[in-house]
Specification:
This protein is α/β, with parallel strands linked by helices. The protein has helices at 9-24, 29-36, 40-47, 55-64, 70-81, 97-107, 128-135, 144-157, 160-163, 185-199, 250-266, 270-283; strands spanning 113-117, 169-174, 204-209, 222-226, 235-239, 245-247. The termini are far apart. The relative contact order is 0.12.
Length: 286
């Protein structure tokens, strides 16, 4: 079977973990290939996400590299079994691949999805009109059709919280998000009302970092941290108007874990946050 030309985020991540297992064993690609009795190019393709890897091959790699992390090996084996086609594939060719990877990232999260935003509503909580206001700010400008398409895709991403009943969203947003009027005051008011409704859902937690907080971890547009089946498979997405950037190196993951711990300490409780959102919506003036 020829190598994949455009491996998905999940396929690339799977390959990256195989590479880390090899590197931890002090082996280079050709050395591992000799132990497995395969061509060195196959190792490169597997680690690049360009070739499928069977459950048996994963266990062979783990054995060759003396990897004793059984939970990680089992999680990687499980990843190879899921060949389902994600809903986002219907947008392939209509939207740039990085936007599709955001949906893939969220859909395959095994544990909670944690989000931090500092100047706009989290994507997973945006209404259609608010999303259109967001995409209207793009430079270069998008056409009306493109704005509608991006907004429809963003709203469909919300379905990850209903398609998977066990999926949980922990959203942290700076108070500035409650006042930035993408699309106008009326759209913002409607968005805040939607936010209040979402805050009552069992699998959604919304907490606000107020202006009175002296320091908080950086003015990042949008940070999404998804918990993997095992800690090694946690993934961070830095989302912006230009598309997402993904991080999965252990040192980077630990750094973002620390950021979320600081944010959690700075944020109001869920009930205090809900009261602030309601008060902000009530005080909006056209």
């Amino acid at each position: 079977m020829p190598p994949r030309r455009h491996p998905t985020l999940r396929q690339r991540r799977h390959g990256a973990e195989l590479r880390r297992i090899r590197e931890a064993a002090g082996l280079n690609g050709p050395q591992l290939a000799r132990i497995l009795d395969i061509d060195a190019s196959q190792v490169s393709q597997m680690e690049g996400g360009k070739a499928g890897v069977s459950r048996q091959r994963i266990r062979a790699i783990a054995g060759a590299c003396k990897c004793l992390n059984d939970p990680l090996v089992e999680a990687l084996s499980s990843m190879t079994q899921d060949r389902s086609r994600g809903w986002w594939e219907e947008y392939r060719g209509l939207l740039q691949s990085p936007f599709l990877e955001s949906a893939e990232h969220e859909d395959f999260a095994a544990g909670p999805i944690k989000v931090w935003t500092s100047n706009f509503m989290p994507g997973l909580l945006q209404s259609s009109d608010y999303a259109k206001g967001m995409f209207s700010r793009r430079i270069p400008s998008l056409s009306v059709r493109e704005i509608d398409l991006h907004a429809a895709f963003r709203v469909q991403r919300r379905g990850v919280l209903t398609r998977s009943p066990g999926k949980r969203l922990e959203a942290y947003l700076h108070e500035a998000c409650l006042l930035t009027r993408y699309g106008g005051t009326q759209i913002l008011r409607q968005q805040l009302e939607c936010l209040v409704e979402d805050s009552h859902r069992d699998n959604i937690s919304i907490r606000v970092v107020p202006f009175e907080t002296h320091t908080y971890p950086g003015a990042i547009e949008s940070l999404i941290y998804s918990v993997g089946e095992v800690p090694e498979l946690d993934t961070v997405e830095l989302e912006s108007s230009r598309g997402p950037i993904f991080f999965d190196a252990p040192s980077e993951i630990e750094s973002y874990r620390a950021i979320f711990r600081r944010i959690e300490k700075s944020a109001l409780s869920e009930e205090e946050s809900r009261k602030l959102i309601i008060e902000t919506a009530r005080n909006l003036r056209i």
